Amino acid sequence: MSRDVKVIAISAGPERSQQYVLARGEKIVVGKVANSDFVVDSSARGVSQRHAELYLCPPESGKGADEVVLRDVSTNGTGVLAQGDPEGRPQCLPLRKGSAHTLQPRSQVLVPLNTKDWGEAEDV
After folding, report:
1. Locate the FHA domain: which residues (predicted)?
2. Which of 17, 72, 76, 100 could form a disulfide with 112 if both were Cys (CB 3.0 to 4.6 A apart)?
3. Contact present, 11 and 17 (Cβ < 8 Å)
4. Beta strands at 122-123 and 108-111: parallel, antiparallel or unpaired
């Protein structure tokens, strides 16, 4: 039986994205600590040492390709910009420690969620 894999691209601001191949049972760790898979600049305010994890999960329907799931493991929360309301404005879905959300293609993740200015948050 073949395992589903996804290619995940992560970037911080205008920097070129880094690509990761993610298979079921593996995870990508985002955080300040040096052994994170994607290391966020240590001067970034509000980003935890281990802030968030990305992993694959079978779809709820049991049919189709695995889905990418984001789980918050931080103290300051993580945000996901959703598709938006009927008028096209993006909606922020807050995630708190231990909560998870299935990401849609081209999702924008905000690290950390708790920031005075959304412009300060890192795009992951």
Report:
1. 28-80
2. 76
3. yes
4. antiparallel
55: left (phi over 0), alpha (psi -120 to 50) or beta: beta
Q: Which residue has the tokens 């990401």?
A: 103
Q: How far apart are CA 83 and CA 4, in angstroms?
A: 25
Q: Which two tokens stand for residue 120?
A: 């300060």
Report the alpha-carbon distance of residue 44 to residue 75 in Å, rounded.
Answer: 14
Query: What does the pLDDT look like over 16-46, one tens digit per residue?
Result: 889 999 999 999 999 999 999 999 988 888 8
Identity of the residue numbered 98 = G
Distance CA 115, CA 93 (A): 14
Q: What is the DSSP string of 37-91?
A: SEEPPTT-TT--SS-EEEEEE--TTS-SS-EEEEEE-SSS-EEEEES--TTS--E
The predicted-structure confidence for 76-117, as pLDDT tens digits, reads as follows 999 998 766 667 677 788 999 999 999 988 888 888 876 544
The SS3 call for residue 36 is coil
Which residue's structure tokens are 């890192």?
122
